[in-house]
Amino acid sequence: MARELVQRELRGKIGVISGEAEETLLQIKIPKKTTTYTPIPYKLIIDSIKEELAWRKFELIETDYRTSNNGNRVVGLYKFLPEAELILREKDRLIRTIAFRSSHDKTMSFGIFSGANVFVCANGVYSSEVSYTKRHMSNVDEMVKEKIHEQLNLMEIFFLELQTFRSSLKEVILSKKASSQILGLLIFEEEILTSTQINIIKDHRRFSEYFSDNSAWSLYNNVTEALKRTNPILYHQHHMKLHKVFQEIILGE
């Protein structure tokens, strides 16, 4: 029952990719194997993640897939909880995520990374580097399962770090000038925001039910809301740049 309540609340807040959409993703044509390249079927990655989560007795709450180039590039995100946390109701709490990136057009090698989503809005928070393979080799089945297993072994360390990160940002109140300077840094130096995303940030700061105050945590979530519109090939890289800026500029780490 608790699992259904969590799912219902998430569906009310975010655009959830249905199981039918996952099936559509799985039907995308797989390129032919060559002497130097072995394609990784999306089904292999998806099934391996779900099997590993089930083996560890995590409850899978939602899946979300971001695609480009007609589905030939994809980032898949899986939101899950230990059973004991299903009854928690704090709106801006973090829930665990694991995500993968891959492609069928050779633009992205397979990679896996873990982090967290804010429960109320599904904004991503990531601090782990991608565990990836430089090229798709012949023993893809073993490689995919090994990378997923390794990343989930490390996940709890990253998750505890992100919880501390969240608590620290909530205590920092930013002036309008400081917020503008941080956004300017993200636009002109880090180059992770487009003009369209800036407008999303403005609207989110004005109308968000949970992230309209002047805390650094709210600004972080304003930006991650905009990063949902990032091309899959840059998704993790841009989140990592954002995380580093807030660590260095605001927390002095």
Tally of structural domains: 2
**Major sheet size, sense and barrel closure:** 6 strands, antiparallel
Task: Give the helix/strand class.
Answer: alpha+beta
Averaging pLDDT over every residue, what do you get? 82
Low-confidence stretches: 1-20
Radius of gyration of CA atoms, rounded to a whole number: 18 Å
Task: Name the shape in a single word.
Answer: globular
The SSE string, one letter per element, is HHHEEEEEEHHHHH
> How many helices in DSSP terms?
8
Number of separate strands: 6
How far the N terminus sits from the C terminus, by CA atoms, comes to: 41 Å
Report strand %. Answer: 15-25%
* Proportion of helical residues: 40-55%
How would you describe this protein?
By secondary structure, the chain is α+β, with helices and mostly antiparallel strands. α4 (140-170) packs antiparallel against α7. The protein has helices at residues 2-13, 19-26, 42-55, 140-170, 176-189, 195-207, 216-227, 235-250, and strands spanning 58-68, 73-82, 94-103, 111-118, 124-126, 131-132. Strands 1, 2, 3, 4, 5 and 6 form a 6-stranded antiparallel sheet that branches. The protein has 8 helices and 6 strands; from the N terminus they run αααββββββααααα. Mean pLDDT is 82; it is low at 1-20. It is globular and about 55 Å long. The protein folds into 2 domains: 2-155, no CATH class; 168-250, no CATH class. A hairpin with a 5-residue loop joins β4 (111-118) and β5.
